[in-house]
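It is worth pausing here to work through a concrete case rather than discussing structure prediction in the abstract. The textbook approach is simple: state the sequence, then state the predicted structure, then interpret. We follow exactly that order.
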Amino acid sequence: MLGGMDQIVRTALIVGFAVVLPVALYYRIRSQATGEPLDRRQEGLLILATLRPAGLLFMFNHGS
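Step two, the predicted structure:
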């Protein structure tokens, strides 16, 4: 019974990824066309000081 659920979840994730990827690529390519450098400080101090380091910690410590 659980095997069927795994297949449903896997299919849903693949379909979701297939829908989101072209849209993300379109906007990524469009933003790169200007050649303007990104200033990460414009995101705000909260994002710069908390969200990015938290993402790095999660990326390296999520399995232990």
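Step three, interpretation. The two ends are 29 Å apart (CA to CA). Residues 2-61 form one domain.
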